[in-house]
Amino acid sequence: MAEFLTDIETIRERARLEIEKGPITDAYGADLERVLQVLNEALATEIVCTLRYKRHYYTASGLYSEPVAAEFLEHAAEEQQHADKLAQRIAQLGGEPDFDPDTLTKRSHAGYDASTDLVEMIKEDLVAERVAVAAYTEIAQWLGDGDPTTRRVFEELLAQEEEHADDLRGLLERIPRNTTNEPSDRP
């Protein structure tokens, strides 16, 4: 059986000394305040992405809008799940998830978009996904072994953001470039 670097009695003693810190122990190797700030920025990003996808879902129109709108709705639900995971991790670490609507877009990595053209919607969503991929890759690398749990959260989000980017790229490839937004039968 492998030996601990610290004897178990010392670990137990330390665990009792600062019980109010919950999961944050002496073994936590990251800058907690900065981690909470980064998590809240990512939370803002996911909320803005949820709102952007929802807007695009409800305003998508034209000949190719039905499958695209369905993808927007699916992505909106997944971005909301990302926001929930981030808020949960912030709370686990003793922080406060920041849902302040007045500062969401300022804290978000991705921008909000009010495009009305279907192709522009897809492009703007793809740009936002690429921003998330780049940011979450850097965050996961920055966290390293200092906070492996938060790193894994970002790695999970990263995998899904890459999938979203691939989905959107595929949609762009399927829509002819000379289309205009024509009315759709979709409600």
Automatic annotation (TrEMBL):
Question: Which top-rank group of organisms is this from?
Answer: Bacteria
User: Which residues fall in a compositionally biased region of kind Polar residues?
Assistant: 177-187
For activity, the cofactor(s) needed are: heme b
Q: Is Iron set as a keyword in this record?
A: yes
Q: Which InterPro entries match?
A: Dps-like, Ferritin-like, Ferritin-like_diiron, Ferritin-like_SF, Ferritin_DPS_dom
Write out the ranges of the annotated region (Disordered).
165-187
Q: Identify the residues that the record assigns to the Ferritin-like diiron domain, covering every copy.
A: 29-179
| Keywords assigned by UniProt, alphabetized | Iron, Iron storage
The record's section on Pfam families has: Ferritin
Recorded hits in SUPFAM superfamilies, A to Z, give: Ferritin-like (SSF47240)
Q: Does the keyword Iron apply?
A: yes
Descriptive protein name: Ferritin-like domain-containing protein
Give residue spans, biased composition: Basic and acidic residues. Answer: 166-176
